[in-house]
Amino acid sequence: MINGSDYGREYVIFRDDVPDDQDDPSTLGFQYNVNNRDSTVFTAGGRADAQFLEQKSTTIRNDLTIPDLEWMGMHTIKMGAKYSMQNYFVQKDFGRNPTFIYDIEGRSEINGSRTVPVAVNLGVAVPPADVDNNVLGLYIQDDWQITDKLEINLGIRWDYEDNAVNNDYRTPDSIRDMLAAIQNLPNYDFPSYFNPSDYVSDGDRKAFKGAFQPRFGFSYDVFGDEQTVIFGGAGRYYDRIGFNFAFDERFKPFQFNKTIYFSNTGGPAGGQETIAWNPAYLTPEGLDPLLAASPGAGEVFLVKNDFEPPRTDQFNIGVRQKFGRWQTALTFAAGHTEGESAWYIANALTETGGRFNGPSPTSVGYSQFRNTIFFQNTDKERDYKAIYLTADKPYNSADRWGFNLAYTYMDATQNGSRDNGYGAFDFDYNTPELSPEYRSSTDERHRIVASGTLGLPADFLLSGIVTLGSGLPYNINDCPSAPSTGPNICWNAGNPEKRAFLPGLNFAYRQIDLRLTKGFDVFGGQRVELIADAINIFNFTNYKSFDTGFNSARYGAGTEVYLPTRSFQVGLRYSF
User: Fold this and answer.
1) Does the keyword Nucleotidyltransferase feature in the UniProt annotation (predicted)?
2) How distant, in Å, are the alpha carbons of 175, 186, 562 from that of 358?
3) pLDDT along the chain (576 residues), means of 10
4) DSSP one-letter code for 347
5) Closest Cα to residue 490, out of 439, 426, 562, 421?
6) Cβ pair 380, 342 in contact under 8 A
């Protein structure tokens, strides 16, 4: 029996209010930002925005292995538990460092002064979030050696979080009343895919308890000599959702920036109603009363009460075959993901369109909110199929050469928002079901990576990596074959132009890297190694952005390249 435990504490801080260049820092905090109304002359001072994200966690984990249990073969049981107490502190001060705009010419048609700012941009202060989240994970697995040839792996995992998506958040009355006012409008109702009661929370959201994740795997040694092995597996996997996603629900409705205009005496100036300048306005605290008297509008974000995290079902089957010193493998894999989140527009005019034409908060008397109401939709899906082929001959001191080849074929599709990540927006379709199924942005159909090592005289080692790919797709604008129910765009339908690598072999991505090393044993088991690298030695141009206009004369031409271009570097490695 093997039992292992660990205990850990973690403290992570992300700050976004420090100078970008540590060698030449600017002064933090307020300074004048000098512009004119037509073009920026120069900007000085600290950033207008600041973020402070802090995560503290205390984690206890225990793993237990029970080997050599005999029943219809041999069993090795593995089980474990993990408990993590986490605290998140999130403070976002967007626009809280005032940005003052000056007219350096003091033009009378603006405000007639070089010393009194024309305007200030300032963001309202929003209270930070300070929340706790307890995370629990349990698993058990049985590695069952049925015969000398056949092994089966059976397992299940369960994960739980008690506050993954703002479970104790209570929807403010102003948002509740605004949604009710829109719903009660004559001749209008929210589209069927948005029911306000599914999103309005009383602070008692239920934590998701259904994250059971079964796994199955097997391997079969056909001849019992480890030369030919058939293997496969299937399983379900749940993904966590970052707290920053749900934070928008409590932050965005009350965060806004305003521009306030000044002059010496106040009143109309430069086509704007202005406020008489007072030096007290040089600080956020001095400006806050003006901000309160000139309210802005936040954005409404609504998280689903019965939210379930995204899940992926994966499957693979393959064979490993040895040919002398070569180990080869061929694997077929597939996966299906459901439940990805994205922000969609709730107050659309119709079921299938009118995303920006429905009744707005302002139209029912709630001018403190912007026109668009965003809600969390979890109907986005992804599918992928892949083939992996590998061949590997390890390097050894006898024949002094090694080689590895990996080929990947991928076919990945999705629906819904073309944005990636949990904070994705979709302004093109009312729901994911109305979008076409299209290639994912990471769908590179063919990719080859070959690497080798060769021993040279005087104990030099030459190694290299060749990377070849068919390239990532790009959108086609003004696409003649775009579906009539959406924008005139074919998502990720463009393929990069392929260029010659070898006669008859063309690829969109080409790169060859070489490395030469020489090692020296010094004394006491210490070793020094000299390294010289040539990166992208043939200086292939690999594009990552393209002219996407179908009617453009340069349609498909590259506009931005991947780095690195050809470069060289030397290094020294010391080991002991």
Assistant:
1) no
2) 17, 13, 43
3) 61 48 41 41 69 92 95 96 95 88 83 88 90 96 97 98 89 97 96 97 94 98 96 96 85 92 87 90 90 88 94 98 97 97 95 95 96 95 97 94 98 88 83 94 97 95 98 96 89 96 95 96 90 97 96 96 95 92
4) S
5) 439
6) yes
Q: Which of 205, 137, 135, 145 is nearest to 170 (CA)?
A: 205
pTM for this predicted structure: 0.84
Cβ atoms of 516 and 501 closer than 8 Å: no
Q: Which residues pair with 374 in a beta bridge?
A: 301, 345
- Encode 26-47: b = buried (16+ Cβ within 10 Å), e = exposed: eeeeeeebbbeeeeeeeeebbe
Do residues 131 and 72 lie in contact, with contact meaning Cβ atoms separated by under 8 Å?
Answer: no
Distance CA 372, CA 300 (A): 7
Alpha carbon 541 to its chain's center:
27
Q: Is 120 in contact with 281 (CB distance < 8 Å)?
A: yes
Tokens of 406: 């990996």
Peptide bond into 361 cis (omega under 30): no
Please list, in sequence order, all residues whose beta carbon lies within 8 angstroms of the beta carbon of residue 563, skipping any fewer than 6 positions away. none
Give residues with Cβ within 8 angstroms of 290, minimum separation 6. 260, 275, 281
At 368, which amino acid appears? Answer: Q
Domain positions in the chain are: 1-62+80-130+257-295
Return the closest-CA partner of residue 165 out of 54, 87, 239, 245. Answer: 245
Q: How far apart are CA 531 and CA 517, in angstroms?
A: 5
CA 409 remoteness from chain centre: 23
What is the spatial distance between Cα 264 and Cα 277, in angstroms, rounded to a whole number? 6
What is the chain's length? 576
DSSP reduced 3-state for 249: helix
CA–CA gap between residue 474 and residue 136 (Å, rounded): 41
Sign for the pseudo-dihedral over CA of 546, 549, 550, 553 = negative
Count Cβ atoms below 10 Å from residue 156 Cβ, excluding itself: 16
Tell me the backbone φ, ψ of residue 279, rounded to 5 degrees. -55, -20
Which residues, at least 6 apart from 252, have a Cβ–Cβ distance to it below 8 Å? 298, 299, 300, 301
Write out the two tokens for 508: 């969109």
Whole-angstrom CA distances from 275 to 32, 288, 562 are: 19, 14, 50
